[in-house]
Amino acid sequence: MINNTMINAPFTLAGHAQHLGYWVIIRTLILICLGIAAVICLWDGTVNLPFTEILIALVILTGVNLLTFIRLRKPLAVTQMEFFIQLLVDLTCLSTVFYFSGGANNPFVSYFLVPICICAATLNGTYTLAIAGVSVLSYSLLLFFHIPLPILSPHHHQADNSINLHVLGMWLNFFISACLITYFIVKMARDLRAQEAQLNRWREDQLRDEQVMAVATLAAGTAHELGTPLATMKLLLNELRDEYTGLQPLQKDLQLLQKQVNQCANTLRELIATAEQTKDGQTPEEKVGDYCITLVERWKIMRPDVTARINLADNKININARFHPTIAQAIINLLNNAADASPEDIEIDINWDSYKMYWMIKDKGPGINEEITSHLGKSFISTKSKGLGIGLLLTQATINRYGGTVSLHKRVPQGTIIQLELPITLASTTGPNIT
User: Fold this and answer.
1) Higher model confidence: residue 421 or residue 156?
2) CATH H superfamily, domain 285-432
3) Inter-CA distances, 133 with 80, 124, 128, 137, 175, Å
């Protein structure tokens, strides 16, 4: 049996800081190899190398490596530009070393492919193209400009000391390899990053769906249990209204309370009716404008304490559409969140066209902390002291299920802006409203 922990483990690509750490290790190994080669040549005595210039280049590269190692111990983010500059420093120092040690004939010159591979796998295409261009340019210049070393020259030198076929073939092989790496590894790395993002989205959706299913199961049982208490409350309210007919303030309170109880009972009936209507996948059609107005009026009954400005679109189009009943509940959840934040001043803009319906809900509440904005609607997170965190979770799940989006933004100077976009499932179009 496959371990569930392994299945649920996050699949993420390493960050640039980790990539730079790997590059420090690679650079250290190359410095060791070049140092050993220089020591062997110095000990042998038969190779006449400009050791001073080579040592300066290696010391500079070693210093950069040590500074990079110290920098990685700091909690600072590593950007793509910084990693790109690190690769350029390596290419510059190594090109200098190769210039003083045989140029393109140096067996270490093929190392130029390593920065291209690393860049292609970790950075974007622009940086990779730049690194590949610098590497090919350096290799090409080293063909003509270098301090020759006879010990590194091929045995089949031409008499005029021009570039022989062996060296030219090495350069051509490097050029082709650099082009292939630049194109294909960049493409594969981009696909891997896209796959990572898609897997993370699927994982979040799966977790959210599991939470929604748990809530739906509990909601079904709760709806069944609420029928009896609501019937008792309605009976008691009728008796109280008949008993205290002379007390007008109390009558107003009892009337308001009865409306709330009736709304709860209607909600339960709608829940049962919704299950009956949608079990065969069909929902009734209605005009988008009437649907929005009915939804707002229903919300006003639920929240009589709220003062809201409703702005319907001026260029209204009479479109008959089908809306799943759960969409209404999702929008009401958003309206209730705004009402809880600032019941005195809410602005609701409603608009639609032939393809989408748009809602913008503005409140003047305390706003939402930016740190938790990205987590809202993905788990049970609430910004209210008495909230359960279920409303936004259900809203996001419902709207996303039908192809819509919900986004929360900070309002200046205070408050929150909720934007909802929902594709319209057209039933029929009766043309523009000319009146």
Assistant:
1) 421
2) Histidine kinase-like ATPase, C-terminal domain (3.30.565.10)
3) 17, 14, 8, 6, 10
Name residue, tokens 């590194």: 152
pLDDT recorded at residue 327: 85
Q: Fill in the amino acid letter for 234.
A: K
Residues 6+ apart with CB under 8 A from 163: 143, 144
- Closest-CA residue to 261 (of 238, 294, 295, 286): 238
Whether the per-residue pLDDT at 193 is higher than 80: the answer is: no
289, 321 Cβ separation under 8 angstroms: no
Strand partners, 419: 360, 407
pLDDT digit string (tens) for 298-339? 888 888 888 888 888 776 677 888 887 778 888 888 888 888
Distance CA 363, CA 297 (A): 18
Q: Where are the beta strands (DSSP E) in 249-328?
A: 285-287, 308-312, 317-322
SS3 426: strand
Q: Which residue has the tokens 């008959």?
A: 320
At residue 46, the 3 state secondary structure works out as: coil
- Residue 150 identity: P
What CA dihedral angle connects 309, 314, 318 and 319, to 10 degrees? Answer: -70
Strands in 317-322's sheet, in edge-to-edge order, are: 285-287, 317-322, 425-432
Instruction: Return d(Cα 191, Cα 180) in angstroms, integer.
Output: 16
**Single-letter residue type at 270:** E
Q: For residue 43, what are its two tokens?
A: 């000990």
| Amino acid, single-letter form, for residue 15 | G
Q: Measure the CA dihedral 320/323/325/329, to 10°.
A: -110
The secondary structure of 329-343 as a DSSP string is HHHHHHHHHHHHH-T
The answer to whether residues 104 and 147 touch, using CB atoms and an 8 Å cutoff, is: no
Tell me the pTM: 0.47
190 vs 302: CA distance, rounded Å: 50
Q: Any residues with CB less than 8 A from the CB of 371 and at least 6 apart, and which?
A: none
| Residues 93 and 58: beta-carbon distance below 8 Å | yes
Q: Shortest CA distance to 91 belongs to which of 44, 132, 53, 55?
A: 132
pLDDT at 213: 62
How do residues 105-142 score in pLDDT, each as one tens digit?
877 788 888 888 888 888 888 898 999 899 999 989 98
